[in-house]
Structure formats: structure tokens, C-alpha cells
Specification:
The chain contains 23 helices and 32 strands. With 750 residues, it is of the alpha/beta class. Strand 20 and strand 21 form a beta hairpin. The structure holds zinc ion (ZN) (3 copies).
């Protein structure tokens, strides 16, 4: 018997070769009808055939969709009348269904990689080779549905050969929206410092790189600045031009070369070679000649990614050293995407650009294996805009704006939390401009109108001001969420927990009492969050100055532990910008309590230890003293410092005193490691005791300190030893990039 069915599919089904797949599957089962993209990013199929064939057809669609597709729902509506349909067609887009999501950009697939490197192929050495399985999607999208006319490719009408492939069901680019070739597609060109065209763009750019020059290279989500990572002079020049003294640069190289300078585990290799092609933070090998020490000074790790476009492959077919690949923007500004803008900035010696417009800026994603789990330091290219699951019983549409540094925003619609790409430091007005633009684009692509706006509790954040504006515009309620509550809820949201104890440790967040929090233990139970413990409140002499020059924190933390003369002796061995004079001023500030801000920050404790051990005396980028401390403690042994806790408060002064007393007796490596271990043990004890008292089964960690392997491993060990479950962030960053998700989770949970 012949039947007819209207099938609607939601999920990630546009821009992933889904219609061609349905077309081919229909052919296999002799199904007549059509498939089309819907205006809300879903897909509709009308299928007519014998009931047996229809069942098989639907089963095949559910079972083996294309690699990058994700089916969230597939509904079948059987229809009464069965008039004979003629053939099976891919129809123009239109109509709506139950919605869909847009795929992220994926790195070049193996077939395209082979094609672009095979002499005689049409796309031999075509730097922008892509297909239905790979290439840009989100970064070129203006609006849904994901049809060529709604992307930057609209400007490049396909040539006759590309059109033929596009229409040929047997071709792997059948209905590929980014179909292009050297004849019709976007092109790379090279400009010199004066903006003049240089012939043989890719070859010349490679020559310039090898000659130690800095080359701007436009990729999918933005523009990188690149130079040879083996060349000290080139890297030093890059640092000078970027005004970046110490902050590590990411590098790109192929897998074989990378083994010369970094250790790669199986799990790390899987991440590196995944279609998302993120930057992965790897352990450096000692004294590898192909990697200048200036790439990641003072660190035991380096961020590495593999080539992810045909252009990158062309470069690494010639160059066998890693290349620095850093986003080409000034400090705290958004990544540059415009050709004119990069040339105006004059940071490079030449510019390898293309004429395909980047609609949505997307930095490289960064992951690190912590406690055997991959965790996001930054979730951007390759992952955004794929949603993260989040329970949403009230079905409110929530727009959460995050905090301040490393910011992201999050749009919660239904059970999908659309976490934005990395936005950056929102102190900066151009970053705020980018954020507003990205929000507008997302509201359009996701077809959302917020009922609730969430932001940080801090009274002075730009994101708070923006929340008030959006609140007015959408007549939406504005909810302010305490910073560490958001970290906690990012954990419970991701792991779908109603109850847990969470340790939330970071640099600083505005506390419920108006003070600077940053080393907190909370319980979440019965819809209530309680602060059940924290680090000892410490005086920060000079406020922001203490964050920059951590020797000041040492003075504050040890002030009550020593006689003045003894303390002075300890401090005089450290690095104060103005020497002894500054020490006198700092001690006077502490004595009188003038310009001294109290804080429970975990980050500042790491900073103090780093300064006390002579590892880092100035913080030139976020987390620098703590990262260098972690590097210094690598492979150390535990000296067994005592843990002092009183009423849930971990005594960090006693811990710092133990460090101070060990300086002359033990190796820096052992002291650094023992500090991390003891610090973690103190907080773990507070958390585990609370969990046992309240019969809560799960303990977790979040916040920027949860990138520290010793910290997370130690807490996890204590938690598991007591028969409890341990959780850490997996789907969103544990740093402030995960705050917006946590805020959305807060709104939906409480
Ligand atoms: Zn491909
Ligand atoms: Zn073409
Ligand atoms: Zn934070």
C-alpha cells in the first residue's frame, strides 16, 4: 500500500549536507516527494512510497545522518490523500517547523585536504577548498536559513563546473552551500605594507615567514599574526609590536613536527585532530630547538593547533617549524576581521588576505586536559553556535550577559543554551560594541526574544548597564546573579544536578556582602545556595596594585603572623617596584587599614606564593603568577604542610607562613607543589564535610583555579575517597567564559 508522510526534522540539519543525504536516501528506497530547508533552520520532507519503504527511509534518516548533523527531533505526520508525485526534489527554502540550530565552522575534511594537494584536481592549491562536511558555516552566516544567499558566498556566483557539481547527486558537493573553486570562489591576495598587491601571494607569504617576517593571515573566524616560532628575533619583534611582554602565544604546526617540542597523549591527539581543530594546551619538551623560549616564557606548556584550512596545509607543506598564530588585535580588543582594519594597524610586514567577508568573528577555541578530562579555556570556533543542554522548566527565554573579563553571553531558549563565542574584556568599549552586534545577530539566527535578562551583581560592569538597556527594550525582568553562584550553577546546570557542594575559586567576583570574593564553598539544596566556607579574608594593600604586584599581597597575608622586623626581612628579599620605601608605605597602609581591600580571592593567594618563591613579581596578563607557579611545581613532592581550618574558613596565612619558612630549606619545585596540594586539601575538607553533613552526594570545582591540574586532582581524590561523586566543567569553560551559562542556569533553576 502506498502512503504519504510529512516529516519535520529539527536539530543541526542545515549546512551539513542533510538535504543531499535525504535525496540520496530517497533514491535508495524509491521514495517520491521533496526535501527543503525551513526558515527556522529545520528541514521538511514530504515522502511518498510503499509503507515498507517509507518505514525503511525514516529509519535510515534517523540512523545515519551526515557526520556533522545532529537530529533533535523528527516528527512524522501521515497524510490521507496519496496522489502520485513525480520524482524526488530539493525545493527552495521556505516555511517553518520546530526550529533548528546552525553548525559551527569545521576544519578541512580528509577528502578536501587530499583534493587540494593533488596535482591535476580542479581545486589543486585552492586555499578555500570546502564541502558539505567541512569549511565555514557560522562565521559566514548573515541570517537563516543557511542558504548561499544568506552567507558571504552570495557575492560569488558558482561557475558552470561548480554548478554542475552542485546539481549532481553523485558529487560530494551536491547542494554544498559553500561550493567554490579557483575560477569562481573567493581568492587570497597578498599586500605589502603600503597596501600594494604582491604576485604569487601564498608562495611569497611563505618566503616572508621563512625570512623572519611577520605576516597577517586571514582565516575563517578572524585574522592571525604569524611568524616562525623557532626564530627568537621574530617572536621578540612580534611581542614588541603587540605590546605583549609575557603572555603566551599559540602556535600551529603539523602533527609530526609537534612531537619535536611537545608531549602529546592519546586524548590530546584526539582533540587536536578533531574536526573542531581547537588549540590544545600541551606540555612542552625541554630545550626543543624548534620552539623559541619567548613563545610561552616561564611556562611548562604551549597552546598548539593543527592546520585547519587548505591554506594552512599549503604553508606547512613547505615550512617544517611551528608558526606563531596569534589573533591580530591589540590588547583587550576584539579579534580583527576586516581587511582595511588590519592594514591600518600596521602590525605585520605583509598581509595574506581573502575577499570573503567574515560575518561572525570567532576566535580559536582552547582546551586543556585537566584531571584526565578535556576542559574549555575558550569555547569558540568549531563549537559555537552549537548549543549546550540546560534544563529549563519554566521555558523562559533568557539572555545572560556574563561578567567582565573573558566574557561570553548565553541565550537560553527551550532546553538549548546557546553559549556565544569568546567576546573578550568588556571593560573595552570596542569589545562591548562587538558584544552588542553579536547579540543582535544571535537573536536573529536563533529567532529569540528574551523574557529575562541576567547579569553579574557587580554594580560597575558595562554588561550590567547593557542588561538594563535590554531589560527596557524587551520589557524583560533583569536578574543579577552573584559571580560565584553563577560558577556553581554552571556546574549543576551542565551535570543536571539539583543538589551539590561546589568549590568556586578564581581571581575576584563581587560578593553578596559587597566584598571581593574568590575562594568560596557553597551548598546547593532545595533551591537554595548557602556559603558554607571560604578562604580567610585577607587585606590587599593598594587594591588593584596588589593584583598587579603580588609582593604586596605577601605583606598583607603575613602581617599578623610575624613581628614587624621579621616581616620586613622577608619582604626585603622580594621585588617591590620602589624597594624599601614601598615596603614602609605598604606596612603603614596595613597598620592603619587605609586603602586596604579585604578579599577571599584564591587567585591572589596563588599570586602571593608565586611572589614569595621569586617565580613572578608582576602580573602582566591574567593568571600569570599562578600559571608560572603551576609550571614551577610540576613534578614536585609533597612536604606535608599543615591544613588549618576554623568554622569553614581555610587559614591561608598559616599556609603562606609554611611556605615562607620552607624557602631556605627546600626546593622551589617541592614548595610550589606542596602549596597547591595543601590549598586544595583545605577547601576539599570543608566541602566534603558539608556534603556529608547534608547528605549531598556530589562535590565539584569551578572558577579559573579549576584549570590547575594539582588543585583539581587533589580535590577529586579527597571527594572520591569519601565515596562521593566529583564533577568539573566539561561543556562550558570553568573560567569566566562559563559565567553567562551559569547565570542562565541560575534563572532556570531558582
Ligand atoms: Zn571537505
Ligand atoms: Zn567554480
Ligand atoms: Zn570567575
Amino acid at each position: 500500500m502506498r502512503k504519504k508522510a510529512l516529516i519535520k526534522v529539527s536539530g543541526t540539519v542545515q549546512g551539513v549536507g542533510f538535504r543531499p543525504f535525504v535525496y540520496r536516501t530517497a533514491g535508495r528506497f524509491g521514495i517520491k516527494g521533496y526535501v527543503k530547508n525551513l526558515g527556522d533552520a529545520g528541514v521538511e520532507i514530504l515522502a511518498e512510497g510503499t509503507s515498507g519503504h517509507l518505514e525503511e527511509f525514516i529509519k535510515a534518516i534517523r540512523k545515519d545522518p551526515p557526520v556533522n548533523a545532529r537530529i533533535n527531533s523528527l516528527t512524522v505526520e501521515w497524510q490521507g490523500s496519496v496522489e502520485r508525485t513525480d520524482g524526488f526534489h530539493i525545493l527552495p527554502s521556505g516555511g517553518t517547523g520546530s526550529g533548528g540550530t546552525i553548525p559551527p565552522d569545521y576544519g578541512i575534511c580528509s577528502l578536501c585536504a587530499k583534493e587540494a594537494s593533488s596535482v591535476g584536481e580542479r581545486r589543486y592549491r585552492y586555499p578555500l577548498t570546502s564541502c558539505t562536511d567541512c569549511g565555514p558555516r557560522y562565521t559566514i552566516l548573515e541570517e537563516i536559513p543557511l542558504d548561499r544567499k544568506n552567507t558571504s558566498y552570495a557575492k560569488f556566483p558558482p561557475c558552470s563546473e561548480c554548478s554542475k557539481e552542485y546539481r549532481d547527486p553523485a558529487d560530494r558537493r551536491f547542494h554544498a552551500q559553500t561550493i567554490a573553486c579557483p575560477r569562481c570562489g573567493p581568492k587570497y591576495f597578498l599586500l605589502d605594507v603600503k597596501g600594494r598587491l604582491v604576485p604569487s601571494p601564498v608562495e611569497t607569504a611563505i618566503e616572508r615567514l621563512r625570512a623572519g617576517k611577520i605576516v597577517a593571515i586571514k582565516g575563517a573566524g578572524g585574522i592571525h599574526l604569524s611568524c616562525m616560532a623557532s626564530d627568537d628575533d621574530a617572536v621578540a619583534e612580534m611581542r614588541r609590536r603587540r605590546g605583549r611582554e609575557q603572555k603566551p602565544f599559540a602556535v600551529m604546526s603539523d602533527l609530526e613536527d609537534l612531537k619535536k617540542y611537545a608531549h602529546v597523549s592519546g586524548a590530546e591527539k584526539t582533540l587536536l585532530t578533531s574536526k573542531e581543530r581547537p588549540i590544545v594546551v600541551l606540555r612542552k619538551k625541554n630545550s626543543a630547538r624548534c620552539l623559541s623560549d619567548l613563545v610561552a616564557p616561564g611556562l611548562d606548556s604551549v597552546g598548539v593547533m593543527l592546520p585547519y584550512t587548505a591554506l594552512h596545509q599549503m604553508i606547512f607543506s613547505v615550512i617544517d617549524s611551528p608558526l606563531v598564530m596569534t589573533s591580530a588585535n591589540r590588547h583587550a580588543e576584539p579579534m580583527i576581521i576586516g581587511n582595511d582594519e588590519i592594514i591600518r594597524q600596521k602590525a605585520a610586514d605583509c598581509y595574506l588576505l581573502h575577499d570573503l567577508e567574515i560575518k561572525n568573528r570567532c576566535d580559536d577555541s582552547v582546551l586543556k586536559i585537566v584531571n584526565k578530562n578535556p576542559v574549555f579555556i575558550r569555547r569558540s570556533r568549531g563549537f559555537v553556535p552549537s548549543p549546550v543542554d540546560l534544563k529549563n522548566p519554566d521555558k523562559n527565554t533568557v539572555l545572560a550577559l556574563g561578567a567582565e573579563e573573558n566574557d561570553t553571553f548565553c541565550l537560553l531558549k527551550g532546553g538549548n543554551a546557546f553559549q556565544s563565542q569568546h567576546i573578550g574584556n568588556t571593560v573595552n568599549l570596542s569589545t562591548m560594541g562587538f558584544m552588542e552586534e553579536a547579540i543582535e545577530r544571535s537573536l536573529k539566527i536563533i529567532a529569540a526574544r528574551p523574557d529575562v535578562i541576567a547579569c553579574d551583581l557587580h554594580p560597575d560592569f558595562n554588561t550590567g548597564r547593557l542588561a538594563a538597556e535590554f531589560g527596557k527594550r524587551f520589557d524583560a525582568q533583569v536578574i543579577k546573579v552573584q559571580h560565584h553562584h553563577a560558577h556553581l550553577l554552571s556546574l549543576s546546570g551542565e551535570h543536571n544536578l539539583d543538589e551539590m557542594v561546589g568549590i568556586c575559586c578564581d581571581g575576584v567576583g563581587y560578593g553578596l556582602d559587597g566584598k571581593a570574593w574568590g575562594g568560596e564553598v557553597f551548598s546547593l539544596k532545595g533551591g537554595l545556595i548557602q556559603r558554607v566556607g571560604h578562604l580567610k579574608e585577607q587585606p590587599m594593600p593598594g587594591g588593584d596594585l596588589a593584583a598587579r604586584y603580588p609582593a604586596r599581597i605577601v605583606a598583607g597575608m603575613l602581617y599578623d603572623s610575624y613581628e614587624q622586623s621579621e616581616l620586613r626581612e622577608i619582604l626585603e628579599k622580594l621585588s617591590f617596584r620602589h624597594g624599601k620605601k614601598e615596603i614602609v608605605v605598604v606596612l603603614r597602609q596595613l597598620e592603619k587599614g587605609v586603602n586596604v581591600q579585604p578579599s577571599t580571592s584564591a587567585g591572589r593567594v596563588f599570586d602571593a606564593v608565586s611572589a614569595l618563591l621569586g617565580i613572578c613579581h608582576e602580573r602582566t596578563y591574567e593568571g600569570e603568577p599562578a600559571l608560572k607557579l603551576e609550571a614551577a611545581g610540576n613534578g614536585g613532592r609533597d612536604l606535608g604542610f599543615p591544613v588549618k581550618i576554623r568554622d569553614g574558613v581555610v587559614d591561608t596565612s598559616a599556609l603562606l607562613k609554611a611556605v615562607a619558612e620552607s624557602v631556605k630549606k627546600f626546593k622551589t619545585r617541592d614548595i610550589a607543589y606542596s602549596f597547591e596540594k595543601t590549598f586544595a586539601t583545605g577547601l576539599a575538607q570543608v566541602a566534603v564535610e558539608e556534603a556529608e553533613r547534608e547528605d549531598i552526594k556530589v562535590v565539584g570545582v569551578s572558577g579559573g583555579v579549576a584549570y590547575n591540574g594539582v588543585f583539581v586532582g587533589t580535590v577529586a581524590g579527597h571527594v572520591k575517597e569519601r565515596g562521593l561523586n566529583f564533577v568539573q566543567n566539561r561543556s562550558v569553560p570553568c573560567g569566566d567564559g562559563g559565567i553567562s551559562y551559569g547565570q542562565a542556569a541560575y534563572v532556570s533553576a531558582l
